[in-house]
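Structure Section — protein described below
Tokens — whole-number codes for backbone shape
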Amino acid sequence: MKGMFILAAALVLVLVAAGCTGSGPGGATPAPGTPTVTDESVNETLRVFTIEAQRSLDTLDANVSSAAAALGQTGLVGPGAETVLLNLSRSGNYTTDGVTFDTNGEVRAVMPEDYQFAVGANIHGSANILAALNGSPALSQRINMVEGFRAVALSHPVRNATGGVEGGVSAVVRPERLLAAPALQALDNRSHTLSAVQIDGTIIFDTNVRIIGQSILNETQYGTATDLAALAKEIVATPSGMGYYRVNDTAVTVRGIAWQTVGLHGTEWRLVVNQER
């Protein structure tokens, strides 16, 4: 299935209407004033995608939180810590590895063993690491990992018996894998394209894997479809919304795009459903 914006560029779509209602994570999916069969299908797909994606994120968050609590007992290094990290790395097929880091932001332990080369690396410059060392969990943007690939990392502080921050733990996650199962559940044989986009415009999931990592804010890809470029800006700027477009100036068929927000600890992902046949 083609990616949402590759499809849009190829067909030179013309946006005919767009509206939005900001409700944030967990809010109701917006619907047009006069629902059509298309609207209902797009909205239902988005509803399920949103519920299941947020559930996956919440499960990830609970797993990292539990690991942080266990590491408060075992310490950041040693066999006990390695067992905790190995279990964290196996908690979902989307989690590649788990790491601990000290108050200087230096990696102290990594599991599985394939990533042992990362021990000693300084990751203090990452916003999620700084947040954890300041006592708050945080989910990073899609960034270059010391493990050698681009992914996101969810970090939690590790506290000692008196409540002081001893360091932290991070789970390194491939968002395209984390969102695959929610997307499959949401599609349910419908002819739609699903995407997930960071608020900086970076595509972190798409049913066309070739466009993951690209930005929907790159206006050159839309050619003369300037309204489509404006819609891309609306998606990253607004928690939820719905728009309509034609495949060309004379087409009778109007298709819909709707989006909603999921996230953790202030990091937001826009989930996007585009009607496609």
Residues 37-74 form the longest helix (38 residues). The domain at 4-56+177-275 is CATH 3.30.450 (Beta-Lactamase). The radius of gyration is 20 Å.
